[in-house]
């Protein structure tokens, strides 16, 4: 008997005859949408990202302002012409997202249209992400309900960062050093 089989046998023996307990799964599943944009912006800012909240009519001008002078990768389906293709020389990437989570300030990419490939979103030093107000949900359960688990998911909570044993923060190790988010209302 392998160690795994032995452990599982012990667990089965320990729970044999125990009553089944129903675990409620409806907790915190739906919350009111009031203030989600503001909470999301606050939480994204807490992660040291640059955050802009703009009216949808002002979105194109804000994008132009953010990417001025940069060689940007623009993924297929983003809806903007003139992207840079070379990962080795691009300054950054601009993407949409699948969902934004207000409670955690997390952006989720499922790499669908306008979201680029994982390499396109992790290699450049700068990531500009456009999040539309309708894509923001209150918490993780609502986000998971909107996502397709068969797609490749990238969960982003701020710029890439890590700390060494002395808690010295180092940014840009596993992905973009700078995350800029435009929330379109």
From TrEMBL:
Residues 86-183 form the LUD domain. Gene3D superfamilies: NagB/RpiA/CoA transferase-like. It comes from the Bacteria. InterPro entries: FTHF_cligase-like_sf, LUD_dom, NagB/RpiA_transferase-like. It holds the Pfam family LUD_dom. This is LUD domain-containing protein. It comes from Nonomuraea monospora.
């Amino acid at each position: 008997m392998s160690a795994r089989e032995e452990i599982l046998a012990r667990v089965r023996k320990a729970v044999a005859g125990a009553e089944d307990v129903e675990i409620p799964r409806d907790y915190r599943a739906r919350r009111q949408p009031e203030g989600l944009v503001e909470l999301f912006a606050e939480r994204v800012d807490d992660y040291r990202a640059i955050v802009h909240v703009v009216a949808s009519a002002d979105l194109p001008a804000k994008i132009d302002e953010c990417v001025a002078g940069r060689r940007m990768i623009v993924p297929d389906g983003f809806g903007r012409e003139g992207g840079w293709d070379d990962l080795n020389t691009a300054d950054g990437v601009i993407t949409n997202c699948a969902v934004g989570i207000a409670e955690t300030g997390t952006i989720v990419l499922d790499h669908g249209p306008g979201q680029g490939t994982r390499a396109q979103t992790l290699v450049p030093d700068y990531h500009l992400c456009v999040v539309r107000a309708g894509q923001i949900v209150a918490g993780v359960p609502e986000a998971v309900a909107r996502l397709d688990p068969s797609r490749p998911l990238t969960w982003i909570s701020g710029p890439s960062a890590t700390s060494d044993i002395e808690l010295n923060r180092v940014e840009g190790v596993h992905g973009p050093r700078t995350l800029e988010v435009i929330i379109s209302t």
